[in-house]
Amino acid sequence: MRNLAVVTCIVIVLSACSDRESSVADEPVVAGIDSPDRDLADHLEALIRAVRTTPGSAPMRGRLGMAYDVNGFQAEALATYAEAEALDPGDFRWPYFSAHLLAATDEHAQALETLARALSIDSDYASAWLWQGTWLLELNRPADAMIAFERARDLGARDAAAFGRAKVMVAQGHYDQAVELLESLALATESPQIHRTLGEALRGQGRTEEARVAMIRGRDAGPVNWGDPRRDQRSAHVRGHASYQLAQGLSSSGRITEALAILERLQGYHPEANCGRDQDSFLACNLMNSFSIAYDRNGDPERALATVQRGLALNADFAPFHLTIANLYRQQRDLDLALHHVDRALELNPARGYAHEQRGRLLFGMERHADAKAAFESALGLEPEKRTTLFYLGLAEVELGNWTLAVDRFERVVELEPAFALGHVFLARSLTETGRIDEARKAQRGAREYGADPEELRVTELRLRELEALQQSENSG
């Protein structure tokens, strides 16, 4: 039903935008204020009140549109952006944001028409031309898309525009030109999008094995998402569960201050005390756990430990607390206590592969290699083909002297992630120990090509030469 509402709203918005002189109703579009998520509802109520207080303010109405936009109220966002644009036709943001909403519903022709209004206000914003090129490709208009990407390049978006141009070349079947451009870009970035597109171009050339490797490296590619500072302005209005996810992303990317600001706001709705109650315990406990992780990432392990200890005192059956405190104890080299908490997490949730992997890493550090191998195998049973688990399982096989099994593990590791230098290093060492010298040399070259540590390469090289000399001696004897 919401998709139907969005399509209906598109028709209304496009009709409304044709009449620039029409008046804007004082009463704003109202949605979301009955949400059980009070963080979201309170924010929307405040923005709606602001619009009612100053009904002629385009920025106020536009902020409400942004809040609807990033919190999933697409139809309401389109209508509100149209109102803001009618109040101030000279503000680039309102048609620009509307164009993105239209594109999100695959209405690319209408999105381009709306984007043209934004570009008539500011034609020097490179990201807008990147999106124009992307949407033109969706409409199978590669020649026009190339012009848009070239315009973005001229405005300074060189690498992004180069990728866009390469996508046009692939669409036009100009695979040789595309490969040349994409291989240059791939040297500078590990972007899955670039590698997947390179795979498409290589496949077009008939280079199937190289295409397969590129496709593996691009397996996590999502939709194209150009850097876009103006569009990112909307994220200030993310609320509720979406803002919790945003905080997690900010924390993991090192933007700790921003993450903590969001977590602190959310904790006003879900205080620590609620972690010990049946109602609301999940959100309150998750927030405490995220605080602990953020403090640790921010270089404050004591505060991180104190936070997670408070969490355990409130709710000892919340498994993530045990995994977080285990990591903190592991950093302190208290492996026995860390293992105790990982084991408790597995008692509470035995179906989580990550916990089995963490148990294996602890056991490996304690030199209990057979037990570590069993833990890694349990993790793989729950999360098959996970590269980190396969790598650690390979290390356990090395410590146990199971060189043939180690080869199998490391071969799969580099298949899954061909640019993982350390995987090539240990594949070379394992092949060396099984006497497969030529294959070991090939793996060693791969390790060097992908930037392995020189000391790691030196150790492998010395062992290779030692075994080569031994083989030559045996053959001559």
Question: How do the strands and helices of this protein lay out in sequence?
Answer:
Layout: H1 2-17, H2 38-53, H3 58-70, H4 74-87, H5 93-104, H6 108-121, H7 126-138, H8 142-154, H9 158-172, H10 175-188, H11 192-205, H12 208-217, H13 229-232, H14 241-252, H15 256-267, H16 281-297, H17 301-314, H18 319-331, H19 335-348, H20 353-365, H21 369-382, H22 387-399, H23 403-416, H24 421-433, H25 437-449, H26 454-476
Helix pairs in contact: 1-4, 2-3, 3-4, 4-5, 5-6, 6-7, 7-8, 7-9, 8-9, 9-10, 9-11, 10-11, 11-12, 14-15, 14-16, 15-16, 16-17, 16-18, 17-18, 18-19, 19-20, 20-21, 21-22, 22-23, 23-24, 24-25, 24-26, 25-26
3D structure, described in words:
This protein has helices at residues 2-17, 38-53, 58-70, 74-87, 93-104, 108-121, 126-138, 142-154, 158-172, 175-188, 192-205, 208-217, 229-232, 241-252, 256-267, 281-297, 301-314, 319-331, 335-348, 353-365, 369-382, 387-399, 403-416, 421-433, 437-449, 454-476. With 477 residues, it is an all-alpha fold. It is flat. The termini are far apart.
Based on the model shown, name its key terms:
477 residues, flat
Compact overview of the structure:
With 477 residues, this protein is mainly α.
Q: How many β-strand stretches? A: 0
Distance between the termini: 82 Å
**Main sheet summary:** none
Fraction of residues in β-strands? under 5%
Write the H/E string, N to C. Answer: HHHHHHHHHHHHHHHHHHHHHHHHHH
